[in-house]
Every structure is written in C-alpha cells, then in structure tokens.
C-alpha cells in the first residue's frame, strides 16, 4: 500500500526501495553531522533510521548538488506562475524557507523566491508521516529546499504571502542548502516597514552596519531585491536612451598615470615599479573620444574619490554614468540632451518599474518622484535670488552649500512642483579650469548642475576645446601646465566644441526613491570606514 | 552686385557688412597668430584685409565657439544623407579636412565625418575669390570646418570617397577648430591596408606605439571607428541577451580589502591609512549576489591583473563581461546558457555590424568568424586526445600551453569548421580551490574554458556552494582559510548551486575580427609599460 503511493509520488525522484531510502538517510545524516545541525539530525534519526516511517524517502537532506545527473525531466514552477497549476497535479518548486512552524500534525511553511512568498502545508496522513512534519518544522530559516506539491485554491486571501489565492500541499521536501540555525539578522526584521508600529512595541530594526556586514542576508529583503533591480533599470535606460540618440559606449581606463585635478582626493596605486592613480572621472578620456570623432559617447564604470567624507551621500567608489557630446554652436544642445535623457529615465522607471517602486514603498516612505517635461532650467543667479528671498545670505559667486542646495530644492518644488531641475550658468570662479567661461558675462560659465530632490546628481559643462585658451585658464588657476600637457595636446589636432557631464548612479537611485542613505543603493558600498564585504 | 550675392549666401550666417567682415578678419588673424599657423595667416592677410576680395565674408577662421548664440536656424546635413540634398540648394556640413589641394583656380578638398568622406570643390568665380581658394587649400589636415555648399551629382563614381555619386560645391568655408600643421601621424598612413602594395614601394606604416601615443588621431581611422563601435555592440548584445534571459545587472566594488586568490598579480592601493587591492575579478561579489537571491546576474566592468606579461593578449586592466547563475541540478544548465549567449552575440554582430566588420576588413585581413549552433562542446580529455593524435606530448592533468591551445583551435577548426568551441571538464588539479570536482571522476572538475580562434576568452566553473567542502578544498590547496573567512561565510545562510564565468571583452573583439593584438581593441590600453594616454 505504502509502496504504491511512494512509487507514484516519486516518479523521477529519489530511489524508493527501503534499502535506497536507508542509504539516503545515512548519507543525509552524515551531511547533517557535518553541518552540525542538531535539530535536523534529531529529526533524521527519528525518520530515516526508522523503517516504520512510511514517508522516509520523501524528505531529508539532499546530497550536495555536484552535477551528478541532469534530472531534466523535473519541471520547476516559479511562484508568480503558481496560479496556472491549481488543480493540475504535482510539480516542483525550489525556494527558501522563509518561516516554518510545526504544530501537532501539521507544518505551515512559508516558501520564498526572491520577493514572492507562498504558504505550504504538510499534514500527517497517508503520504506524510509525523516525522516528516517534524523534519519540515525544524528546517532552519533561509535554507534552500525543493518541494514537490499540489496547488490548491483557498477561499480567503492569505495576507501573509504575496501569492494570496492558493497554498501548496507538499508531498516531498528536500533540503538543498541548509542555512545556519542562528542568523545574524532576521529577514523579517530587516524588511520591517520603517514607520510601522510594532504590535508588541519592540520596534525591532536592523542597523545599517549589521545589514552591510551581512549583506548576503540583507539583500534578500523585498525592498533590496527591488532597489537593485531598479538600479539595473536606471543603467539600462541610460544606455538605451543614449544609444537611440546615436551615442557610442566607450570604456575608459581606471588606472591613470597622473592625478586629473591637482592630485587631491586621489587614490594611489603601486604599478609595478611605479606609482599610478585611480581615475576620479573618465572626463579626459571622454573628451579624447570626442576629439577622436566618436561625436557622442557614454561610459558606465567605477569612479574613485579618496575623500574622507562620512556623509549620507558620499562613497569612495561609485558607478559613474558619464556622457560627452560634440555640439554645433551652443552647449544647450547638450544640456537639453541630458535633460531629456533624465526625463526619459524617469518615465521609464515610472512605467516599467512600478512593481519595484511599490516594493520599496512597502518598507520605506517613498514619495512619488515629480518631474516636468521638458525639465525646468533655472540660472544660478535665479537660484541665488530665490534663496535670498527666503532670507538666506549668499554671495553671487559663492557655491551652494549643502543646506542651501536642499533649501533651494524645496523652494523649487514649492514653486514649480518638480523634484528634478537644472541649474545653469554657475559662477566661473567655482568651476574647474577647463570650464568654458560665459561669453556674455565673465562672472559666469557655460556649466550646469542637475538636482533630484534638492541634491546634486550631475555636474557638467562646456569644456574648453582650444589648447591656447585652456593653457591660459589653467595658468589662471595656478595649475602647472606641464603636468597636463597630454590633456592639452589632445585638442591640438582639431576638436569640435563639446560638453558633457557625470552622473552618480547610486545617488540617482537613492534620490529617485527618496531614500536617506547612499549605502542603501550601493550593493557593496565603499566608504572611508568600510572595505568589506 | 557682390553685396547682393553675399546677402544671399549669408542668410543666417556671419555678418555681411564690410565693417563686420573686417572685424571678423581681425579676430581671425589674432586667432591665427595665436595658433601660430603661418600659412593660414598669410592667406588671411591676402583675404580679410583686402577689401577687393569679394568673397572676404565667406571664409576665414571662425571665432572660438563659446556658445554665444544658438544659430538654431542653421541645418546641418550628415554625409550619408547627402544624396537627398542633390539639386536642393544650399546647406551646411561640419567635418574634418581629410585632404585639401589648391591648384590654380580650384581647390579640391575631401571632407571627412567619422568614416564617411565626400569631395568638395571651390572654383574661382562670382562667389569664390582666388584668395578663398588659397585659404581653403591651406587649411591644415584634420581641422574641423563648416562649409555651406550645394550637392551635385557626378557622372562617374568618385573612387577616393565613400560618398561616390556626388560632390559638394562650396560657397562658404570657416575653420571651427584648426589642427596643427604637423601631425605626428597621417590618417592615410594609419588607415593603409596591411597587405596593400604601395605603388611607390614605400610601404609606409604607423607603428603601434606611435599610434597609441597619439591615440586621438589614430582612433580616427575607419578601421578604429568600426572596431570601437563593434566593441560597443558586443557589450550591448551581451547585456541585452542576458537581460532577456532574466539576468539582473549588478555592480561590484573594484577596491577590495583582501586579495582574492592568494595575493599574486594584484595591484595594491593606499586606502586612507590602510592598504587595499584592486579586484582581479568580480567573482566573489557575483557569488554573493547569487547567495542573496538575485538568481542570475551579470556585470560589465574593469578588471585588474598585475601580471608583468608583455604579450599580444594581456592587459593589466581590461573590461570583464562576467556572469553567474544559480542552477537546479547540473552546471550544464549554465554552460549552455553561456554557449547560447555567445552564439547570439556572434549572430548579432554578423547581422547588425556588417558595415563595421567590412570597414575593419578594408585595413586588416578579417576572415569571417565561423560558429556552430548549438556550439561545439568537447571534453578536455578529447582535446588532449586530438593533440596527441597530432603528435603532441601532453599529460592528462597538464594545462594547455598557449601553443597547444592554438594548435587545438586549428585542429577543431579543421575537423568541425568552427572558430568557437567549449572545452569542458578540466583537470581538477589545474583549477582554483573553489571549483567543484567532477562527482564521477575525481581527476576532473565541473569547469570549462571557451575559445575563439584557438584562444581562451572565458574561464568558468561550477563553484563549491557548501562551506564545509569549500574549507576542505581550500586546505587541500594550502590556502589559509582565515583569510577567506568572509568568502566562506557567504555560503552559510543557504546558497543554491551555481556556476558562471568571466569573459575578456577586448579579447572577444580581437578574436572575432581576427586581429593580432589586444591593444587594437582597447581604446586606451594599459600594459606593464603603458599607462598613457
């Protein structure tokens, strides 16, 4: 009787004879002892070695998957596709044990796949033994398991899962990769909404260092799964939009022979018997690509800043989304291209990543990101006037302090209802030597910053493309022109006027979602105090 | 009479009054003196200051383009779109002077835009003066100019240009950015077909260091324009194909706290008061992303190798196309995914980049790249057998030497007619500690390399995802496991079996095109002896 059932349930699965079951149980036990998991070992003892357990072959610790066989006949179903399985018989699912609780003759287990969850049930009966229920209830959270199950519709929504209209009746369950019983953080705690009141008033939160120290666990929360999928979306949109506009992707070296801007805030690398530096920006190389006739280029890559800034928005290594473009007569040709690229990114995120935005919103307070089309462009002087109207004292040629930058963001939002705007015509005095001065007013320059929710996410300018003038401006800035000779040389063989800018990817994601710390949008952040994991 | 013509020709162009013309001539002269170009200055003297020159306002050195005005009414035409302009009146083109030759009353000028060229003519008459012809003939090669012209169909193909069915009759010509009169290399020399016999038997070639030292010029050749557009295509295809397969793009840190594989060949970075290293591979981080439930990930970014290898295929910094993927039972699920990704890339290049492939073929001998669908998979042992059949002595557990690797590529090509193949099941002894041993034969491992034209372009494997076994293997390799504790720790919270690989982007492009040196496919290559530009 039992044999027959096993044969049915085990089609294409572990061997079913008692001998084989014992052998497997023995192997499983060995693995358990190795893993040092007492709970599972105890369950195993009760199960595998007990020939009276009619379910013995239907559960246990799987052998290490070493690619011994392909089992290509075994079809796996993803959680979001479970609905189609209702009433269709047995199938397999691989996922993590989100929670598991055995209670008497039943075990309720929530299985998780990335951000999706489904309720699974094991109930003692013809197929399942009490030992099997106990085993399932003892599987450590976060372990990866394979289950064979049937999908059954439920009359009432299961509120605790993302798959709310069904549950899975498990007939086989095997641990593929067992997690440590003690986790350094609980996924439930790490996923808890920031503003939610805890019923028990404990308000358990996971602090940022614990999260980052255990990033492999922390990244499993639905918000983190969504953040990094949305981040991939930002990069994809950036590239696709620019490719459609005729831009060519380039790759620029990160190891450079001379520090780009005077040697401040630069990391030194030992390069065989010499010293070299890590590039603080791909700007020189983008400009060389323009001088080399690539016309419009972009590059996505690591950028390094040796600033000892321990703030919510500084990283020592981040991903730069950089672009550079030749223009005909006016750098606004470029300014508008960049502005429209942002608009298209914002639209793309809104339209294609609404699920991710919503998932982040489940944990963090996400205000929808507002933007105008075309984007708002203000002159720096207008920004200064707005700040002064608000009672702030600031000079005409004074750079925006971080508080003033944020205040201006709020003033712009109040007046124009946009979270994105462009500030054009920065004072010449506060921009780098290669910035083209404004031909109409020597106090200003053809340079711009772009802001999201009041924080700078892009800095750019028309660059001086005439070598003699570049030398003049470098000297004015007290720069030793012999040290930038190669840079200047690039413009001696004909170079079109050009402008560009660099975007901090992590900042874009942080500010688009309205998050409070850039470490939330860097998968493995680097700051002056953190080099691991 | 002259005034009227000027007014017509100058619609929306430089001011036309004599006063303005003089002013412009003065500014131009100043610029010329600054630029130190005697030839142009002489032409200018003959032209701008001579009120008798009826064409004076129709040519000269343009003021530096500083974004003074937008001239948005001025429409520019791209060379490949010129055909539509035949018989349609005046329009503007911006491009480089490829060559220019004044002969008596005519000047023949070839204008270049990226890889396109068109013949332009200036002939003395009502519109053009002899001074203007002289000016045009003296513009240094590679200068960027704006011309206003009409397109006229020609009866016989112009063989020397890419736009062969028409020529441009120039009515205005202004230098936007003047090149030095002496160029360190000539674009014509740098573009010369490798196998072409020079009529004069001079066989002028530009050597690689001269090219790389003057990369801004070298990159302007049609072959280089094509190589780097095709390279952008490789990256785009890689990403799009994997995104369509459900992969998520991630970004991994380049600055790491511990050298990944024993500390050999790693660059050291000074990190504030500490030391750090440059990542030799994103592998650990890809694996962490898998352990963190991202399931299938890829990353495109800089990879650093401090190897003092001065070969045709080694760089100290290159672009890695890396991927990692969880699988169910057998690493061949991943192997096939990678293999099919390559097939899709090869098809994409063949179908979408045929113009670029052809352009490279104009200069270098490019044999069409052959591939099978699905790709050929051989076991390492089969490869060894083929080599032995060819008379090579090589051990069962001996790694392929570079000559053997190449020979095997030729043998495979002869037997299977493919330039791409996969070598599976490498001997365990020659692979890193984290490689999963073959469960069926302890001499081998679940690891693979992939080859293009007989050179390795990908190395990959199933990784050990069980911490205890990883420790055992690390110890076997004599690795201090305390130093890789963080790596091992990543697998303690449940990790699916997974495999992946890393591809060298520059190698793929080099070998797809059959080029002989990786420095041809790195825009700004880095090797032990080259850190500039």
From TrEMBL, chains A, B:
GO BP, sorted A to Z: aspartyl-tRNA aminoacylation
Q: Is-annotated flag, keyword Nucleotide-binding?
A: yes
Residue ranges with Basic residues bias: 19-28
* Protein name per the record: Aspartate--tRNA ligase, cytoplasmic
Give the UniProt entry's GO cellular component terms. Answer: aminoacyl-tRNA synthetase multienzyme complex; cytosol
Molecular function terms from GO = aspartate-tRNA ligase activity; ATP binding; RNA binding
The Aminoacyl-transfer RNA synthetases class-II family profile domain, residue ranges = 228-533
State the species of origin. Drosophila hydei
Q: Which gene encodes it?
A: LOC111593274
Q: Name one Pfam family in it.
A: tRNA_anti-codon
- Subunit architecture: Homodimer. Part of a multisubunit complex that groups tRNA ligases for Arg (RARS1), Asp (DARS1), Gln (QARS1), Ile (IARS1), Leu (LARS1), Lys (KARS1), Met (MARS1) the bifunctional ligase for Glu and Pro (EPRS1) and the auxiliary subunits AIMP1/p43, AIMP2/p38 and EEF1E1/p18.
């Amino acid at each position: 009787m039992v044999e027959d059932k096993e044969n049915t349930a085990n089609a294409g699965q572990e061997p079913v004879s008692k001998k084989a079951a014992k052998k497997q149980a023995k192997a499983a036990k060995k693995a358990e002892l190795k893993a040092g998991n007492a709970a599972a070992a105890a369950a195993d003892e009760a199960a595998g070695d007990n020939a009276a357990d009619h379910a013995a072959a239907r559960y246990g610790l799987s052998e290490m998957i070493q690619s011994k066989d392909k089992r290509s006949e075994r079809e796996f179903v993803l959680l979001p596709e479970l609905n189609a399985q209702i009433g269709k018989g047995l199938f397999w699912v691989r996922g993590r044990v989100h929670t598991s609780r055995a209670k008497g003759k039943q075990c309720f287990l929530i299985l998780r796949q990335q951000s999706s969850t489904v309720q699974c049930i094991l109930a003692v009966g013809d197929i399942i033994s009490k030992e099997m229920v106990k085993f399932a209830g003892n599987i450590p959270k976060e372990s990866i398991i394979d289950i064979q199950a049937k999908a059954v519709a439920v009359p009432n929504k299961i509120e605790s899962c993302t798959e709310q209209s069904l549950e899975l009746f498990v007939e086989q369950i095997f641990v593929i990769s067992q997690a440590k019983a003690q986790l350094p953080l609980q996924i439930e705690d790490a996923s808890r909404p920031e503003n939610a009141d805890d019923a028990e008033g404990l308000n358990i939160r996971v602090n940022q260092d614990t999260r980052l120290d255990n990033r492999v666990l922390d990244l499993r929360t639905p918000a983190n799964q969504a953040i990094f999928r949305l981040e991939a979306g930002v990069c994809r949109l950036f590239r696709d939009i620019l490719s459609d506009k005729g831009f060519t992707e380039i790759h620029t070296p990160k190891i450079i022979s001379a520090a780009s801007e005077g040697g401040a805030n630069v990391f030194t690398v030992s390069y065989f018997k010499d010293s070299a530096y890590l590039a603080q920006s791909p700007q020189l190389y983008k400009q060389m690509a323009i001088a080399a006739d690539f016309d419009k280029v972009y590059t996505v890559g690591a950028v390094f800043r040796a600033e000892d800034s321990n703030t919510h928005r500084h990283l020592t290594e981040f991903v730069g989304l950089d672009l550079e473009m030749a223009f005909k007569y006016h750098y606004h040709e470029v300014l508008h291209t960049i502005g429209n690229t942002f608009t298209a990114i914002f639209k793309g995120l809104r339209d294609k990543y609404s699920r991710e935005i919503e998932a982040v919103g489940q944990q963090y307070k996400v205000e929808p990101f507002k933007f105008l089309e075309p984007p708002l462009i203000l002159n720096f002087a207008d920004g200064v006037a707005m700040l002064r109207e608000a009672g702030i004292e600031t000079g005409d040629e004074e750079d925006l302090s971080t508080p003033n930058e944020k205040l201006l963001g709020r003033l712009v939002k109040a007046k124009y209802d946009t979270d994105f705007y462009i500030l054009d015509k920065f004072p010449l005095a506060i921009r780098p030597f290669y910035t083209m001065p404004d031909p109409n007013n020597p106090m200003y320059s053809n340079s711009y910053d772009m802001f999201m929710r009041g924080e700078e996410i892009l800095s750019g300018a028309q660059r001086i493309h005439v070598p003699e003038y570049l030398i003049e401006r470098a000297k004015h800035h007290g720069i030793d022109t012999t040290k930038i000779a190669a840079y200047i040389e690039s413009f001696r063989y004909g170079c079109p006027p050009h402008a560009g800018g660099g975007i901090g990817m992590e900042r874009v994601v942080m500010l688009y979602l309205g998050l409070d710390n850039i470490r939330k949008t860097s998968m493995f952040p680097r700051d002056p105090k953190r080099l691991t994991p």
